[in-house]
Amino acid sequence: MPSGRTRALYRLRALRRSSLLIAFALGSLLVGLTPLFGAASPAPGAPAPRPAPVPFEQQTAMQAPHHPVVPANALEPAAPVLDRTGWTASASDEETAGENGRAANVLDGSTATIWHSKWSGTPAPLPHGITVDMHRTAVVSALVYQPRSDWGNGRIGEYAVNLSTDGLSWGSPVATGTLADDGSAKTLGFAPQGARFVRLTALTEAGGRGPWTSAAEINLLGDPGTPAATVDLPRTGWTASASDEEATGENGRAANVLDGEASTIWHSRWSGTAAPLPHSITVDMHRTAEVSALVYQPRQDYGNGRAGAYTVTTSTDGSSFGAPVASGTWRDDDTVKTATFTRTASARFVRLTVTTEAGARGPWTSAAEIRLSGPASPAAHGSWGRITGFPLVPVATAALPGDKLLAWSAYAVDRFGGSNGYTQTAILDLRTGRVTQRRIDNTGHDMFCPGIAMLADGRVLVTGGSNAEKASIYDPAADEWSATTSMNIARGYQAMTLLSTGEAFVLGGSWSGGGGDRAGEVWSPDTRTWRRLPGVPATAALTADPAGPYRADNHMWLHATSGGRVLQLGPSRQMNWISTAGGGSLAPAGARADSPDAMNGNAVAYDVGKLLTLGGATAYENAPATRRAYTVGFDGSGRVEAARTGDMGHARAFGNSVVLPDGKVAVFGGQARPVPFSDATSVLTPELWDPATGKFTPLASMAVPRNYHSVANLLPDGRVFSGGGGLCGACATNHADGAVFTPPYLLNADGTPKARPAITGGVPARVAAGASLTVATEGTVASFVLMRAAAATHSTDNDQRRVPLVSAPAGAGSHTVSVPADKGVVLPGTYMLFALDAQGVPSTAKFVTVH
């Protein structure tokens, strides 16, 4: 790095070139808010009085008048910060001549001192690495990197994190990605595992200012309570008993922890003379199973009885319980807690013993739900890859040809608010894992909370949001953004879909843009203008949300069919047929069976004329989510039939669902009670729905909660990207990362990849609807399917569509494949063509545009 006058110029230029964000002290990630209790406590165990609801217009806004304040638990770290006592740090190189830039400075607790790569004389070239030695083995789940606070030189751009138990063998990175060029603390997460040494390697400088790397502080986070490679055990036939339970003043029986309802609880005896701590509850599985974790969900109404210090023990006979397999102290909040066992136990009985109440409010213990987890089998439950860091929270994503994933947030990488006229974007290269960042200014559009439609020519149309009337288009072939004509009606949280005509339809969206009905309108790719549809009012598709249209017309589930028609099948319980011809028209299509409104659930087209709806809640937030799922089918006559299918194992809203090439549907993340910017009641167990049985089965547990502002997308290799969540500024629920899930259909029992068929030729870049292809293949092929390239945001992805194809053998290694002629079945646009074997194992897809 230059010195003297030249160095000063570098500093000045860096400050001029970057609009530096205020650096967030690491302490802002660590400070939680104490629970809000009055001076007088409620009667022990009795429900605390609920505060009177505040009218929406009187609520305190966060960054914009669209969301209430961040809940207290959102300001607490998702995992404990490890004690740095005795730690040391070393670096690949460090500056000691021109300044005190020693590696040890990252552990001294002062952001004023830094580690800096060597810059005096001849600068050491990138990459630069710094290694923390904890001098003991600990479970580690994240590295917290605090950039220097004085100016930007040396901020890390592209990075990799590696772990080691001996400082010699490092293996593949556990996390990679690209960091934003600002001064905020960055949490680089990965699946928790034991390590002694943690190495952060900087591959580039975030601002391209020179071959330098710097860091003010480095911290490590411990076990967040989500074990790797585990899966929920089925609770059928289980029973629960407790050392004591409240049966007089309330229904606080132990059995409530197994009923699947967070509103019912086990509570220790409090009427008369309260039973003193410790209290214990024992789950009897009535069969011996391998158990590796206990999941504890606190009560949701108020804090009395939340478990603090605890131990977990196991038994095969219910009499002899051995040494604890887990112990610790849980925080006083309402988030789901996991006790990860030190070793997998073969047991029938699992006992949770609580020795302190987390908030020291009294001698009470309570629990809403208890679940147990066992080791996951890859062939049955799939597996998760390493976590990839993004330079922003991926609030919206779109799958692109060339194995790319487009993502964007808002005007800022970690927060939203106002109408700033620009958007932070990123592209993940699925082949290399590299993430690149770009700010888009030329469209004058802050694309936070938009509607999205994948156009017939493969471009991505993005409408409304923070700049509520704007519309922008991304062209993946040119990697360019451009503006198109603004909508007639300003909108945010609206729904969009492409039509069979090649036009784009939009409806609803009262989140931004003022009052009034958000009736439908259509964008023409030929004229690049919007046409009003006065005959398609949004009022007919509203939910009964207590916040009114502001929430009631959000995130509609739209499915385009033949002749420019659209089936609106949710989240309102009332379904509607929409015609987009002329001024448009709308006709009722019946109720979605016995389903209530299901805001922040979603719908997925898993076959031609067949959709699955999953989860949601009767209100946008602060209402219990549902476990219900429904199938919705329609035929050429327009008759719609809805029926309840099997329930999910977990109630969830804010989750994301993805249809797989074999027709099964995977659902990821969500909350049992939706609250924006909170990770309370997180569901960490994905589930897989099988249309052949109508049942859901659990998949391997997630390492990171994915709730409000999370996404999921099918990838061209048959895997699924799941990421995001948060966008709430200086909070601990910002998840600027994602991970790839490998479904069970790709894995053998030992976790190795299954042999899969391959498409080797015969797939043109463009094909007409109704055409036939002669596709060259390798391996055994039983069927073909088209999967539409899709875009997701706010739990909704109206672009998803699975179209099974008619095919026949055409000689050795060759098949004739027919594309449907009906553009209501195969909408114009970009698709992934998969070949599948008889067991449903998919090939890697070939991209093709159907026109």
Automatic annotation (TrEMBL):
PROSITE patterns: FA58C_3
Keywords linked to the UniProt accession: Signal
Domain of life (superkingdom): Bacteria
InterPro entries: FA58C, Gal_Oxase/kelch_b-propeller, Gal_Oxidase_central_sf, Galactose-bd-like_sf, Glyoxal_oxidase_N, GO-like_E_set, Ig-like_fold, Ig_E-set
Protein's UniProt keywords contain Lipid metabolism: no
Domain F5/8 type C: from-to ranges: 70-204, 215-375
CDD domains documented for this protein: E_set_GO_C
Any coiled-coil regions, as ranges: none
Protein name as catalogued: Discoidin domain-containing protein
Taxonomic lineage: Bacteria, Bacillati, Actinomycetota, Actinomycetes, Kitasatosporales
